[in-house]
Amino acid sequence: MSGSAVRDRLAIALDVGGLVEACRMAERVQPWFGIAKVGYELYAEAGPAAFDAMHNLGVRVFADLKLHDIPNTVARGARVLGRRGVDFLNFHAAGGVEMLRAGVEGLKEGAADAGHEAPIALGVTVLTSDADASAFGQRLEWAAKAGCGGVVCSALEIAAVRTAGLRTMVPGIRVGAVTGDDQVRVATPDDAIRGGADWLVIGRPVTGADDPAQAAAAIHALVEGVLVS
Ligand code: C5P
User: Fold this and answer.
1) What superfamily does domain 3-228 belong to in CATH?
2) Residue ranges per domain, the chain?
3) Separation of 113 CA from ligand 1 center, angstroms?
4) Beta bridge partners of 35
5) Tens of pLDDT along 157-193?
6) Torsions phi, psi of 73, nearest 5?
7) What's the CA angle centered on 187, arms 14 and 212, to 5 degrees?
8) N or C terminus: which one in the chain shows less Cβ crowding within 10 Å?
9) Ligand 1 touching residue 123 (CB < 6 A)
10) Residue among 187, 192, 154, 221 at smallest CA distance from 6
């Protein structure tokens, strides 16, 4: 497995303030993390310019906007985000199969309108800060039925998602004995990859480190170690 293939599986959560800080962080870690997760903090500050800035730095964009509304509104929002060139977009699977289907279709249409490669629609199953994952099975089923390419889930649910034929974007990653902060269902990067995660979303273990570049490089090496063994 090449270094760039490992890089394609690592997303940095840019929960760091405005666009200047986000670009600085993405630039520092981009040799090891090839996806930038733009959440609503950064999106509220910078809007779609954040997507272009990340693409200019050579990283793909995961718009973590967790759309959840009536199907028509979700379809329209997803269509615009697809036109803007996001590479991944997520939807709260709790919104149900019709809402998810509307989002999947809207995203696909928007990307096609603008001539972008088809983005990946992800259903958010259960937040990794939530200790109760009882809704997981139903939400996974809705995401699969609606045509999502994958789901956002904790490392504990990866096997079930793979059985359903979907890919996994896995947050709640912690390194060594560091605390989980507000995350409850956590795993280390190597365990999550060993368990079959397709992509890892990692924020504070990198962005809160004294040396983010060094922390990103260490996580990249851990993941590479699993994938080449
Ligand atoms: O800092 P930390 O590594 O906990 O960041 C995880 C990121 O993943 C946060 O930006 C959070 O919003 C996001 N996320 C999550 N759980 C989900 C979906 C997204 O933690 N189910």
Assistant:
1) Aldolase class I (3.20.20.70)
2) 3-228
3) 30
4) 11, 60
5) 999 999 999 999 999 999 975 555 677 778 999 999 9
6) -70, -40
7) 35
8) C
9) no
10) 221
